[in-house]
Specification:
Rossmann fold, 7 strands, globular, two-stranded antiparallel ribbon, five-stranded parallel β-sheet, alpha/beta, 228 residues, single chain, 43% helix
Amino acid sequence: MPASALVLFSAGQDSATCLAWALSRYRQVDTIGFSYGQRHRVELDQRPLLRGRIAALGLGGALGEDRVVDISGYGALAESALTTEAAIVMAEGGLPSTFVPGRNLVFLSIAAAHAYRRGAEALIGGMCETDYSGYPDCRRETLDAMERALSLGLGRALRIETPLMYKTKAQTWTLALELGGAALVELIVEHSHTCYEGDREHRHVWGYGCGICPACVLRAKGWAAFAS
């Protein structure tokens, strides 16, 4: 079993599944999150609860240190429908207005610096190019280039692992079931947060959310396919 990894953990469905995946494969797993002015910052409130509940499942590795990094200045510069009250629509170029330019590149750069100091061998993220909104920084091609750049810049090999890259949302639910059984699936349903509107008032079979935003639609469709 490899020594250590750092998970980019937002408390969403994907990153929660990735945390469970990492704990099943690494002896030590740290987490990092980012406060970038997101309108759905309720996800930050869910992080400690979800981390603790997943760790308590005893999936193998030990859950270590957690950091939340304030990069709200970046969020203001990279203005989008995720960092303002703007409507969520399709914008020019075919990308939704929720696209935060370079978000994953910024996250990975900061996470890599922390991983370097912590001696972590890999960064683990929930990026996916199967069921997603078309964000170019979620593509494996982008992450391969980023992995090489970070390894060169740090003078030490650092892997970027994306266990969900080619999975549909239904397959992500299935992976959670395989990793932690019904208990992990229920934790993700009840305590993770995906909704772009930050809605934790409306409870659906797949979890909390407005049920209308792109993130909710993807999650709901994935659950329906998984449960059928």
